[in-house]
């Protein structure tokens, strides 16, 4: 073998029958790294190494060849194994009791079974060690067999093979025997083998731990492991490469632990030597103990150095090549183990030559690898002795670390935020304002874990060490809360404080310091700006709401599911009791102080909704209940804002439902509404007498709004306002206020009718005839009002549309299903009225309004109203108020309006399918036929024009709506095809092609949903209609030919639309056809659909 030049670095391990590896020369052979700049990016020679042919380990001999080529000076002393007449290792001159016995099946399976089951791993290792001491070759072959078996390889290694073949030949032979039927092998397999990886880790650590005192330093054992695993890790068989890399890295980790133990032992011995030196000063005689300690320390140093050499060799032979492997998990294994070495042995591994691999891997395309890099870095900053080295690394890769705050992988982003917090703790001046801006934005992230991590960074930087809140204000927390408000206002990143409060909720107690927040609002010494006051009140309301419910804001993703734990439930109860006790006396004062500011009052009114109401029963709290309802009465008298009035009405409703205080609250509410109702009566009388001036008109509108707000939470029959409201709807015609008055009057009439119907049906008895007649009279009155409003497009038409749809459901045929006495109340709208409903929907929901000049908020409001109109129409179909066929009004816009209403359309189709498969199929066909009819004649005759292609795309998108089980939807699909055929041959005149013939090309999109036998039935029907309509076979038009071809059985890849180029046949057809033969016996052949 030719000698390797001294300057050439060895690349791999040796082949068999060579002298023991000199790991010192191997580790120091590549000296070029010393001349490289710190953290030099990988060059083409290191990052783009040319892939070697499969199983080529020919270069292994350069690593373990003639050691003289490395000019290695011989070590002093007797090498290990000299008593046996051998050099430092090498298999050829080894003298042992060699046996050629084949390994027993029991022994061969024992190690693999222990790892796969996770049971008796320690016992299996002990037995193997015993066999190694007795039968060296058998045990060695058994361990080699284990490494291949744990890869999923079925090949067998005999002692003869292990003793005579090189590792290159063994790996080649095992590669040939490896049946790689799938990408699954034990360490990536799920199911029963999902714990193999953890068990293999335990096995390898146990093996190294059990052999660390004697066998670990046996050259024949460790050299074999190193050579075999290094060769397997370089294989192109993924199972070999993956498993061997895992084993090599875990063995390295175990060796690192042994090195640490040896280092600690050496330090202990050094202390003992120093102690013995002190004794020798007064005693000139020799000290045998001192000499023994010196020898022991020397041996320990040699052993530690030898293990470090093995670790370094494995690092350069496996890690350096596999940390950039094409398989992401292999890269993860390498980075994870390197992070572990740095954590447990920083003196050796926290160095530029190792840290650079972490830095380079920060740019990995796979999020899990980047995540492992960040996870490896975080614990290192807890070690003060290595901070100087880490500072250099961070300065080099800071730009990349900051960019990873917005990593698309959430786990990586969360971990990076935590790393930034650690960085700020140790290097406060490292991060600039530009670096921290992305961190501040993450406070409002939709993912809660990410937002909480960002909040923890702010806790470290700004809001540190707040005092635990009590029932009294805390002066120390006041400036922190003001800083939080300043951060929220100046950040200008979000308009909802609830997301900010949620981020800090579990990590900073100041957001639960309700007493201090109220003190900031009520104490004049703070002199808060009105904007600050609004934000503090918003924070207070958000904190109270989350403390009572334990739920994060809408739109913020949480991972935990299910009911809260016992501790969380207990914390919720304690927090609720504490804020109730603090805020019951303060909320009335806050309502009084800020009663003129609507935004502040709305947030304050929501706070008592979460009170623990039984606290009002104590003697010292009863006066505060009176103060609260008095403040609410004052708000109703002072404001006419709809949102505020509804909030007050809801709070009254909430308080009235708690029986111990309901009497007191009801008295206040009834007194308040008596005055409102009295003024409405008086105003209507003035309207009849034409004596209503502008002031009276404004007051009348305000009182109508107040009563409408309470109508949604209580039955108004006590004030008997029905006839008055009907009169208002018929006679009120003031132009400026007509819309407000009509909408709210209509709303009150509808809600009152709903309460009347509920009272009639919930009593459990058969309603009396006069009660039914009275309710029917009121229903008909309201229907006439709503019809007139809808027909004339008068003020309040949107409210009329919503009320009409709800009434069609409320008074539908199911109302009389259980009680025949309710039959007179069933409402069956006529066709003309339903046509008016459709026209209104089309005009107000599907004709794009001109929103170019509107601001974003206004656009959102208009879109919300449009979605509400569409959803209301969909409810009519779902609840049976209208037949499924009427859903075609929406479904024909599935493609054109999918962006705005796609979720509503999909839910409607799903519900329709649950109701009736056949009707859904017919409805889809009708929708397509309607759109085809609306096309121009030229467009119908041009199947490649834009309009026709758009219709074809719609059909393609509606195909999944019929479901994936062709056996369940077969009658729906065949009905669709039957109707399509009938439609295609309509209006045939003479020899010209029927005008609707091209519709068959649209029906082709649904041919893939037909079972094989149903295709035959549809094809027969097509021939039947063709002959009946045309009467001759002379005319075979192109659409007819294409459609007929789609009904023929053929492989899926061939069943393709000629014009669109899209595959029509579905694999679901094959699955459904195959499923007919499942079960016992031959199964029953599916019956073909009747010939229509």
From TrEMBL:
Domain spans labelled SCD: 319-404
Name the InterPro entries for this protein. Answer: ARM-type_fold, Cohesin_Scc3/SA, HEAT_SCC3-SA, SCD, STAG
Q: Give the transmembrane ranges.
A: none
PROSITE patterns, A to Z:
SCD
Compositional bias of kind Polar residues: 1-32, 58-72
Q: Which domain of life is it from?
A: Eukaryota
Question: So what family is this one in?
Answer: Belongs to the SCC3 family.
Q: What protein does this entry describe?
A: SCD domain-containing protein
């Amino acid at each position: 073998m030719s000698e390797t030049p001294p300057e050439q670095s060895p690349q791999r391990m040796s082949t068999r029958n060579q002298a023991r590896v000199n790991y010192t020369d191997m580790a120091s052979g590549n000296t070029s790294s010393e001349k490289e700049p710190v953290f030099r990016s990988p060059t083409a020679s290191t990052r783009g190494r040319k892939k070697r042919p499969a199983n080529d380990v020919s270069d292994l001999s350069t690593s373990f060849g003639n050691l003289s080529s490395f000019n290695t000076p011989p070590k002093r002393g007797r090498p290990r194994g000299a008593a046996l007449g051998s050099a430092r290792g090498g298999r050829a001159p080894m003298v042992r009791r060699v046996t050629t016995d084949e390994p027993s099946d029991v022994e061969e399976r024992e190690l693999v079974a222990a790892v796969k089951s996770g049971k008796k791993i320690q016992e299996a290792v002990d037995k193997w060690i015993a066999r190694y001491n007795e039968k060296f070759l058998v045990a060695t072959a058994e361990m080699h067999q284990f490494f291949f078996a744990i890869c999923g390889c079925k090949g067998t290694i005999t002692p003869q093979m292990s003793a005579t073949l090189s590792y290159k030949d063994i790996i080649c032979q095992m590669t040939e025997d490896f049946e790689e039927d799938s990408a699954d092998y034990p360490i990536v397999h799920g199911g029963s083998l999902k714990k193999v990886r953890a068990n293999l880790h335990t096995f390898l650590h146990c093996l190294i731990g059990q052999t660390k005192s004697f066998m670990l330093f046996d050259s024949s054992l460790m050299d074999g492991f190193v050579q075999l695993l290094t060769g397997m890790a370089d294989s192109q068989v993924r199972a070999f490469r993956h498993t061997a890399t895992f084993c090599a890295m875990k063995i390295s980790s175990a060796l690192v632990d042994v090195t640490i133990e040896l280092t600690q032992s050496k330090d202990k011995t050094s202390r003992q030597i120093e102690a013995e030196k002190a004794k020798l000063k007064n005693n000139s005689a020799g000290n045998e103990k001192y000499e023994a300690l010196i020898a022991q320390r020397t041996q320990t140093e040699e052993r530690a150095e030898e293990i470090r050499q093995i670790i370094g060799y494995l690092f350069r032979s496996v890690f350096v090549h596999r940390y950039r492997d094409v398989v992401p998990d292999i890269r993860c294994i390498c980075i994870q183990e390197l992070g572990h070495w740095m954590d447990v042995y920083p003196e050796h591994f926290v160095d530029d030559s190792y840290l650079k691999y972490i830095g380079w891997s920060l740019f990995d395309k796979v999020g899990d690898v980047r995540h492992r890099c960040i996870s490896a870095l975080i614990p290192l900053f807890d070690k003060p002795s290595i901070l100087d080295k880490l500072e250099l690394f961070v300065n080099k890769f800071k730009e990349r670390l900051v960019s990873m705050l917005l990593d698309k992988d959430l786990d990586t982003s969360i971990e990076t935020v935590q790393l930034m917090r650690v960085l700020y703790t140790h290097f406060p001046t490292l991060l600039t304002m530009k670096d921290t801006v992305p961190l501040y934005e993450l406070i409002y992230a939709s993912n809660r874990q990410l937002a909480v991590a960002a909040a923890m960074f702010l806790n470290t930087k700004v809001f540190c060490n707040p005092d635990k809140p009590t029932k009294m204000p805390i002066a120390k927390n006041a400036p922190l809360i003001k800083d939080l408000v300043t951060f929220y206002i100046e950040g200008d990143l979000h308009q909802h404080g609830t997301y900010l409060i949620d981020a800090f909720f579990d990590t900073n107690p100041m957001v639960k310091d309700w007493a201090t927040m109220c003190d900031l609002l009520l104490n004049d010494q703070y002199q808060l700006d009105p904007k600050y006051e609004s934000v503090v009140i918003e924070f207070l309301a958000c904190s109270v709401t989350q403390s009572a419910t334990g739920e994060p804001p809408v739109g913020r993703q949480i991972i935990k599911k299910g009911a809260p734990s016992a501790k969380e439930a207990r914390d919720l109860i304690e927090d609720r009791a504490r804020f109730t006790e603090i805020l019951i006396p303060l909320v009335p004062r806050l309502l009084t102080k800020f009663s003129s500011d609507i935004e502040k009052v709305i947030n304050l009114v929501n706070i008592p909704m979460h009170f623990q109401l039984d606290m009002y029963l104590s003697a010292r709290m009863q006066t505060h209940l009176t103060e609260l309802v008095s403040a609410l009465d004052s708000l109703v008298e002072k404001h006419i804002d709809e949102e505020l009035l509804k909030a007050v009405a809801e709070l009254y409703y909430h308080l009235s439902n708690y029986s111990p205080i309901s009497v007191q609250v009801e008295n206040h509410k009834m007194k308040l509404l008596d005055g409102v109702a009295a003024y409405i009566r008086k105003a209507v009388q003035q309207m009849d007498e034409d004596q209503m001036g502008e002031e009276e008109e404004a007051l009348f509108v305000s009182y109508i709004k107040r009563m409408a707000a309470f109508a949604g939470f209580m039955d108004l029959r006590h004030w008997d306002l029905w006839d008055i409201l009907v009169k208002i709807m018929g006679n009120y015609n003031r132009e400026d206020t007509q819309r407000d008055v009509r909408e709210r009057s209509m709303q009150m009439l509808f809600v009152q009718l709903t309460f009347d119907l509920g009272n009639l049906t919930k009593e459990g008895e058969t309603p009396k005839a006069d009660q039914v007649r009275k309710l029917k009279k009121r229903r008909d009155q309201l229907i006439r009002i709503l019809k007139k409003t809808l027909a004339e497009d008068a003020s309040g038409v949107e409210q009329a549309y919503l009320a009409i749809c709800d009434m069609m459901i409320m008074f539908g045929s199911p109302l009389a299903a259980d009680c025949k006495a309710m039959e007179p109340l069933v409402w069956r709208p006529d066709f003309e009225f339903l046509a008016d409903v459709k026209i209104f929907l089309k005009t107000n929901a599907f004709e794009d309004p001109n929103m170019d000049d509107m601001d974003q908020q206004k656009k959102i409001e208009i879109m919300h109203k449009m979605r509400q109109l569409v959803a209301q129409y969909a409810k009519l179909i779902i609840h049976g108020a209208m037949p499924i066929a009427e859903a075609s009004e929406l479904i024909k816009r599935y493609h054109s309006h999918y962006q705005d209403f796609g979720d509503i359309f999909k839910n409607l189709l799903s519900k329709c399918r649950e109701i009736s498969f056949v009707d859904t199929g017919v409805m889809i066909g009708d929708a397509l036929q309607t759109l085809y009819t609306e096309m121009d004649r030229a467009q119908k005759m041009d199947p490649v024009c834009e309009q026709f292609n758009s219709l074809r795309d719609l059909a393609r998108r509606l195909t999944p709506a019929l479901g994936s089980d062709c056996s369940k939807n077969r009658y729906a699909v065949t009905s669709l095809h039957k109707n399509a055929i009938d439609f295609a041959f309509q209006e045939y005149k003479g020899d010209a092609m029927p005008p609707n013939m091209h519709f068959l090309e649209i029906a082709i999109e649904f041919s893939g949903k037909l079972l094989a036998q149903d295709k035959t039935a549809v094809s027969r029907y097509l021939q039947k209609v063709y002959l009946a309509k045309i009467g001759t076979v002379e005319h075979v038009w192109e659409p007819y030919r294409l459609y007929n071809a789609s009904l023929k059985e053929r492989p899926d890849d061939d069943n393709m639309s000629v014009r669109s180029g899209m595959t029509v046949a579905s694999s679901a057809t094959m699955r459904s056809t195959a499923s007919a033969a499942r079960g016992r016996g031959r199964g029953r052949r599916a019956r073909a659909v009747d010939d229509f």
